[in-house]
Amino acid sequence: xxxxxxxxxxxxxxxxxxxxxxxxxxxxxxxxxxxxxxxxxxxxxxxxxxxxxxxxxxxxxxxxxxxxxxxxxxxxxxxxxxxxxxxxxxxxxxxxxxxxxxxxxxxxxxxxxxxxxxxxxxxxxxxxxxxxxxxxxxxxxxxxxxxxxxxxxxxxxxxxxxxxxxxxxxxx
Length: 172
Ligand code: OFO
Prior knowledge:
By secondary structure, this protein is mainly α. It has one domain (4-158): Ferritin, CATH 1.20.1260.10. Helix content is 74%, strand content 0%. It is built from five helices and no strands. The chain has helices at 4-33, 37-63, 83-110, 114-144, 148-158. The longest helix has 31 residues, at 114-144. It is elongated and about 55 Å long.
């Protein structure tokens, strides 16, 4: 049983996760167009991750007998600059999502909603990993600099990213 405030906030978060998915799909397309198939692949996998994030919230609302309200998804940009600029934008977006998850936790605590607080801890941990992944790639891109051979090697490395584990209901 969720109260209305919590239900509304989780519906907003579903929209943010779907936007994340859309944003990374745009980055994947942009990377393909720039001749970086490994980067394109990395972002395609990220799209799958974000869909899982959205679906876990979706499943949670259903399991709690709450109402799902799907909202319009904002159009993402289609230009992202250099690979380094693109990953800096990715990190900024993830930091925004981290703040949003932390606000949900704050709300769950304020509303004494222990079930939702426990459920949200998966996302708190997931966001550490999300930011860590981006920081790692940013550090590598700084080392790469203007070296085209190194960028080619990094593109090959990003092409190795494995897909996420299939989500089980409410427990990916
Ligand atoms: Fe990338 O963590 Fe969800 O949005």
